[in-house]
Automatic annotation (TrEMBL):
The lineage of its organism: Bacteria, Pseudomonadati, Pseudomonadota, Gammaproteobacteria, SAR86 cluster. This is Regulator. InterPro entries: RmlC-like_jellyroll (IPR014710), RmlC_Cupin_sf (IPR011051). It comes from the Bacteria.
Amino acid sequence: MDNLIQFDESAIDWKPLPGPDGEPADHISLSFLNVDEKAKIVDILFKFSANEKILMHRHTSNYSTFTVKGELRTYLPDGALKDIRPAGIFKAGTPGEAHTEGGGDEDVVVYFSLRPYSETDPIYEILDENLEVTQAMNFNDLKELNKEYSS
């Protein structure tokens, strides 16, 4: 057990996620790991703030997650806690219901593999308080954001 390696989130180059208004969204940052042009898959780390919630959204493509550090909390639109995924938990997901997410008592770092398999089909949709779509994000949008952050 002397050879344990700790995940060091300070070594990650965290960037803001633009919200629907173009300004950085609250309580979330990201770091691109890989953008696979051929398969149309984006691998990304997200960091959600402790005891906060990010924007309401809905996944509109397949994805998988792995909680790297902390615990990922998922909430229903009415604010009720739906799920808690501590570090080490993997989940494969499909398009689904509106929800929000955030960290537990510490910031949470989650690996997402976003799999739209298309350049233009939405990966997720940002929703307003009436669950109406205010922004959709697709593979090309994330590819361009990665290019912007890599320059």
